[in-house]
Task: structure prediction
Amino acid sequence: PMPGMGGPPPPPGMPGMPGMPGQTGPGGLPLRKRPKPSTDLKSLNWIKIGNNKIKDTIWIDLNEENAHKHLDHSDVEKEFPAFQAKPRRTDTDADEELDAIQAAKPTEITVIDPRRAQNCTIMLLNLKMTNREIHHAILNLDDENKLPNDIIEQMMKYVPTAEELSMLKDVEQQVDLFAPADRFLWEMHLIPRYEQRLKAIFFKRKLVERMDYVQPRVPPIGIAAHVLGTRSALVSTCTPFVISSFL
Result:
């Protein structure tokens, strides 16, 4: 340099090097030192503001370098890792979880004799109809023939007794917790003249079966009666009885 002249200006910052005070990056945002985490962290669900929209906003004046000085980065990395290994389950953990589920699950209420309840439940499983559908069918005397004959006969065995209804009424406030057989007996007793309706349906079904059996046999009986109505035919019919008197 010439005598009396100042030294040469300092070289500009190299790419990738921390910016000097007063230097700015894209969009006029001051260059800051940003520490990098030692491991991958969870991403934030936000929309980044474009560099061209930062000018004349508060982000120009905020200095994140000062905030990082008071932040425990190791604690952040511990609390917000991108991948966190699940704790290994033990048999004790599984047993405790099962106990908690069973404790939280409402217990079914049943007051019906266990054997009677079991057989009633089997009948309902074979029927494959909801209590509402059964209720509707019985109210209409099963005009649509949805209830098989053998089921009707079984249902007559499971008409709730006075004792069963008394026990069910004691817990009717918890009807939603009734076991299937108890719920069935409770809802069926609400049908007016439930037992009489079952008997009427059963009688109607049996009458149809018997009529189908008898009707084909009625004409031959009528013909025989007509033949026997003539004197000669009646004499011929009674002849064997005369012979039997000789014996």
About this structure: The first helix runs from residue 64 to 69.
